[in-house]
Design goal:
692 residues, alpha/beta, 7-stranded mixed β-sheet, 5-stranded parallel β-sheet, 25 helices, elongated
C-alpha cells in the first residue's frame, strides 16, 4: 500500500485501544519471559516482539468459522483472537492444562478447536512446511463449497502466516502453485523482518516474497508497513475481503522489525550488533501510542490500558507457575484416534460373485467410497481425466464423479501428502495417490512432520484422516525407479498406519477400513499382484466381496496351515510374510507338503504380533520373508522381536530372507531376479530350517 497517513486508514478508536492493550500485553509477556529466563527459557520459545501490529491486524479479521495456520512467533495473533496470556504461559512452561498440547509441544505452536474461535490445526515448527496443510484447508473448503456441503451463509477463509525466510522453501512454491491453479480462499501473510536465525535476507534470497509471488499467475498481492497498525489493519481487511468474496488467494507482504531474540536459545546480542537499534526505530508500540494521542485519547486512558495489560500478565504468570505439570503416566496417550472399524463385516465371498483382480478390487472400493461419502475426493498424478492412473487403478472415476472429486495434481508429492492434513481439518476426506513408491520421498517431510505427529501433539484434537495409496514392489523390468520397496522406512514413523494387502478381497476390505480410520493410512499396493500376471500369483485374484465388506486393520491371516501330523512330528515351520512374499512362500511350500504354515500380516502397523507369536509357538521354527533389502529392515526387526518373545519355544534361530543389500533394483530382468527373493530361494531356506 502506497499511502501511510492516518487519514487514509481510518480505524475505529475502540479497535486501536484494543490493539494497543494487546501490544502491551505481548511486550510485557516477552519482557517477563526475559526477566525470568531461568524459568521461562527451560523450553525454547519465540515471541512476536516487533511483529505485534501486523499480527493483531490479521487476528482481528478472523471469524469463528475461519481457519488459521500461524507460525512460531505469532503469539500476538493468538492474543488477538481471544486467547489469554495464562493459556499461552501454560504452553510456555509445558504444563498439564496447556490447551493446545497438554505440555507436549513448543510455545506458539497452537492447535485449537473451541467454540467461538477460528480453528487452528496442529502444525510443525512452521518454517514453510505449514503452507501445504494450510492450502489443503483452503482446497478442502473450496471442494466442500463446490459440493454444497458447507453453510452457504459462511464463507470461510484460511490465514497462513509465514516468515519471509521460509518462503524460499520448495514446499511453499507447491502451495502457491495449487492455490492459484485451483483458485483457493487463502490469505498468505508474510512477515518480513529480514532475518532467518543469523542469516539476513540478502544472504538467503534473490527477491522478497512480494516479488516472488508475482511469478504465480493469479496471486493477488499487497505490501503493507507491518509496524503501522492502522495501515496493517486496512491491508488485512482488504485481503480478507478479497479472499472471502472473490474466493481466490492473496499474499500480504508486511515489513516488520525483529525486536526480540530469534528464539530464547539464539539470543540477539550474539549477532545483531547495531542492527537491533536500527530495527527499534520501527517499534509498532510507540507508533500506535502517537496515533492514539493524535486522536485525543488521553495519557491517563493510555496508561490505564497499559496497567491493565501489566496486571493481567503479572497475575497470569503467577498462576501459570503454580499450575500442575502433566501426569507422566499420560505420556503415551493419543498416538492414534480410535477407529470405528473393529470387526470384519459384510460378505467376503458372496454367492454368485465373480473373481476380481486386485487392481479392480481397489478401484471398486474407491468407487463405493465416492458414491457413499460426498465429502470424499481422490487426487494424485494422472488419476483423473482419461487415463485414470498409470495402472488404471482409477479408471473412469473422473468421468463418473467429475473433475472436482477426482482430479490430477502437478508432480508435487509434498502437496499430495501434506494437503490431506488440511483437508481432514475442514471435514473433507481425501484419498490420494503417489504414482510409485520410489517417488514418495519428497512427500516424507509432510508425512513425518505434519500428518504423523498431529494427533499426539494436539492431544487427539486433530487426527489426520488420510488414505495414501502407493503402488510398490518389483514386477519384472520396472527398473531402479519403479520397483522399490519402502515399508521399513515408513514403519519408523510413529503415528501412521501401514497396510499391505496381498489379494483382491483383502484389498477391498482394507481400503474401506483405511478410509473410515480417522488416522493417516498408507496403502501399499504391489504392482506385481495388481493383475495376477506374474507366475504364481493367481491366488491374488479372489471372489470380490460385496460393497459392505470391511476388514479391520491389524488382523493377520493364516493363508495356509500345516498338517497336524507334520506338526506333531516336529516337521513344520511358519513363514511370516506379506505382499509378494505370500506367493513365493506358497510356490516354495509345494515342495514340502503339509509342513508349511504361511501367515499373511496384511497390516504392518498396527502389527498383529499375537498372531505372529501364536504361529511361531505352534511350530518352533520361523522364517520372516520380505521383498526389501534385508539389512536393517522391518523383517529383521520382527525376527528380533520373535526371538525375544518366543525364545523358550524356538527349535532354531529365526531365519530371515529378503532382497540383496543393494541401493536399487536393476533394469535387466535377469539382474533383477538375482537381487530379489524367489520361490527357489525360499525353498532352499525352508529346507535348511526344517533340517536345522
Amino acid at each position: 500500500m502506497s499511502k501511510d497517513t492516518l487519514e487514509d486508514f481510518r480505524v475505529d478508536v475502540a479497535v486501536l485501544k484494543k490493539a494497543y492493550r494487546l501490544m502491551i500485553t505481548a511486550k510485557t509477556m516477552a519482557d517477563t519471559y526475559e526477566e525470568n529466563k531461568a524459568i521461562c527459557s527451560k523450553y525454547v520459545h519465540s515471541t512476536s516482539r516487533g511483529h505485534e501490529a501486523i499480527q493483531l491486524a490479521a487476528a482481528f479479521q478472523l471469524k469463528p468459522y475461519d481457519y488459521a495456520a500461524p507460525y512460531y512467533r505469532d503469539d500476538s495473533i493468538l492474543l488477538g483472537i481471544g486467547m489469554q496470556p495464562y493459556e499461552l504461559m501454560l504452553q510456555l512452561m509445558a504444563k498439564a492444562d496447556d490447551p493446545f498440547s497438554g505440555g507436549r509441544t513448543y510455545y506458539g505452536h497452537p492447535s485449537l478447536r473451541r467454540e467461538g474461535f477460528p480453528t487452528i490445526p496442529h502444525q510443525s515448527s512452521a518454517t514453510g512446511m505449514q503452507a501445504i496443510p494450510a492450502t489443503g484447508m483452503a482446497h478442502g473448503i473450496a471442494y466442500l463449497e463446490n459440493q454444497g456441503l458447507l453453510n452457504a451463509d459462511e464463507k470461510p477463509v484460511v490465514l497462513c502466516s509465514l516468515g519471509d525466510g521460509s518462503v524460499t522453501e520448495g514446499e511453499v512454491a507447491e502451495a502457491f502453485q495449487m492455490a492459484v491453479l485451483k483458485g483457493l480462499p487463502i490469505v498468505y501473510l508474510i512477515q518480513d523482518n529480514d532475518w532467518g536465525i543469523s542469516a539476513t535476507g540478502k544472504e538467503m534470497r534473490a527477491m522478497d516474497a512480494y516479488e516472488y509471488a508475482a511469478g504465480f499467475k493469479g496471486m493477488e498481492r499487497l505490501r503493507v508497513n507491518g509496524s503501522d497498525f492502522a495501515e496493517s489493519y486496512e491491508g488485512m481487511r482488504i485481503a480478507f475481503e478479497y479472499a472471502r468474496e472473490v474466493r481466490k488467494p492473496i499474499l500480504v507482504h508486511a515489513k516488520v522489525p525483529l525486536l526480540g531474540h530469534h528464539t530464547s536459545g539464539v539470543r540477539r546480542e550474539w549477532y545483531r550488533g547495531d542492527n537491533l537499534q536500527q530495527h527499534s526505530v520501527n517499534d509498532p508500540i510507540p507508533r500506535l501510542k502517537q496515533t492514539l494521542l493524535s486522536l485525543d485519547v488521553t495519557e491517563d486512558e493510555i496508561e490505564a490500558l497499559e496497567q491493565e495489560a501489566y496486571r493481567t500478565v503479572n497475575d497470569d504468570y503467577k498462576r501459570a507457575l503454580e499450575a500442575p505439570v502433566p501426569d507422566p503416566s499420560t505420556f503415551n496417550l493419543h498416538e492414534f484416534a480410535p477407529t470405528p472399524v473393529t470387526e470384519e463385516k459384510g460378505e467376503r465371498s458372496p454367492a454368485g460373485a465373480e473373481k476380481a483382480i486386485m487392481v479392480d478390487a481397489a478401484l471398486h472400493a474407491v468407487d463405493d467410497i465416492l458414491r457413499t461419502y460426498p465429502e470424499a475426493l481422490f487426487y494424485g498424478q494422472d488419476v483423473g481425466g482419461e487415463l485414470g492412473g498409470v495402472f488404471r487403478e482409477a479408471a473412469l472415476l473422473a468421468k463418473k464423479y467429475g473433475d472436482a472429486r477426482v482430479f490430477n495434481t502437478p508432480i508435487q508429492e509434498a502437496y499430495i501428502v501434506g494437503s490431506t492434513a488440511g483437508m481432514s481439518t475442514v471435514g473433507a476426506k481425501a484419498i490420494v495417490e503417489i504414482q510409485f513408491a520410489d517417488y514418495i520421498w519428497p512427500g516424507m517431510n509432510q508425512l513425518v512432520e505434519e500428518l504423523s505427529k498431529s494427533c499426539y501433539l494436539s492431544m487427539g484434537k486433530f487426527p489426520v484422516q488420510s488414505v495414501i495409496r502407493v503402488p510398490i514392489g518389483a514386477y519384472g523390468g520396472g527398473g531402479p525407479y519403479h520397483s522399490g520397496s519402502i515399508e521399513s522406512t515408513l514403519l519408523t514413523i510413529r503415528g501412521i498406519k501401514v497396510v499391505y494387502p496381498s489379494n483382491a478381497a483383502d484389498m477391498k476390505g482394507l481400503m474401506k477400513a483405511a478410509f473410515l480410520d480417522p488416522n493417516p493410512v498408507v496403502m501399499l499396493e504391489h504392482k506385481g499382484l495388481y493383475w495376477s500376471k506374474v507366475a504364481g500369483t493367481e491366488d491374488a485374484k479372489t471372489i470380490e466381496p460385496d460393497e459392505n465388506y470391511i476388514l479391520p486393520l491389524g488382523k493377520a491371516n493364516v493363508v495356509q496351515y500345516a498338517d497336524d501330523a507334520e506338526v506333531k512330528m516336529g516337521n513344520s515351520m511358519t513363514i511370516i510374510t506379506y505382499g509378494m512374499g505370500i506367493y513365493w512362500a506358497k510356490t516354495a511350500a509345494k515342495q514340502f507338503p503339509g509342513s508349511i504354515e504361511i501367515l499373511d500380516l496384511r497390516t504392518l502397523n498396527p502389527l498383529d504380533f499375537e498372531a505372529v507369536v501364536a504361529s511361531v509357538k505352534r511350530h518352533g521354527k520361523a522364517l520372516v520373508l520380505t521383498e526389501e533389502p534385508l539389512m536393517n529392515s522391518f523383517a529383521e526387526s520382527l525376527a528380533g522381536r520373535i526371538s525375544k518373545e518366543c525364545f523358550q519355544q524356538l527349535d532354531a534361530p529365526v531365519y530371515t530372507l529378503g532382497a540383496a543389500n543393494l541401493p536399487a533394483i536393476p533394469l535387466n530382468v535377469e539382474l533383477e531376479k538375482m537381487m530379489l527373493p524367489n520361490p527357489d530361494k525360499v525353498a532352499s531356506t525352508i529346507e535348511e530350517l526344517l533340517n536345522y
